[in-house]
Amino acid sequence: MSFAQLPAVDAAAVPSDGLVLDVREDDEWAAGHVEGALHIPMSEFVARFGEVTEAVADGRTAYVMCRVGGRSAQVTQYLVQQGIDAANVEGGMQAWDGAGRPMVTDNGSAAFVL
Fold first, then answer.
1. Which residues of 23-34 are buried (b: 16+ CB within 10 A; e: fewer)?
2. pTM greater than 0.85 (yes/no)
3. Pairing state of beta strands 62-65 and 86-90?
């Protein structure tokens, strides 16, 4: 599977008010995530696709993220095929953390990338 023509963005370039779509699994999300991100695990993506279309209804770009960029590339490709403006966050949460971008947890503990 080739992602050569896939829209992509560097983690440091995601707008602070951008719509981040996190497709990691629940345990990864619990360890640390982008505040305000929409969490839809890749394993539930097709069933919960309506949540994505609702979130981008105003023409927003979905910045799709996983741990390192593989799962998010697949989801980004799917979204683009559906006519949705989406970009894969290159390097995923590891790059986000590496760029010093803020992360949070739901329970207030120190956030990290699992």
1. bbbeebbbbbbb
2. yes
3. parallel
Instruction: Assess whether pLDDT exceeds 80 at residue 3.
Output: no
- Nearest C-alpha neighbor of 46 from the set 18, 19, 83, 79: 79
What are the tens digits of pLDDT across the range 71-109? 999 999 999 999 999 999 999 999 999 999 999 999 999
Phi, psi at 96, each rounded to 5°? -60, -50
Tokens of 77: 């490709």
Going by C-alpha positions, the residue among 17, 2, 19 that lies closest to residue 73 is: 2
CB 92 within 8 Å of CB 68: yes
Q: Are 11 and 99 in contact (CB under 8 A)?
A: yes
**Tokens coding 50:** 């309506």
Enumerate the active-site residues: 66
Q: pLDDT tens digits for 17-58?
A: 999 999 999 999 999 999 999 999 999 999 999 999 999 999
- Tokens (6 digits) for 46: 């097709």
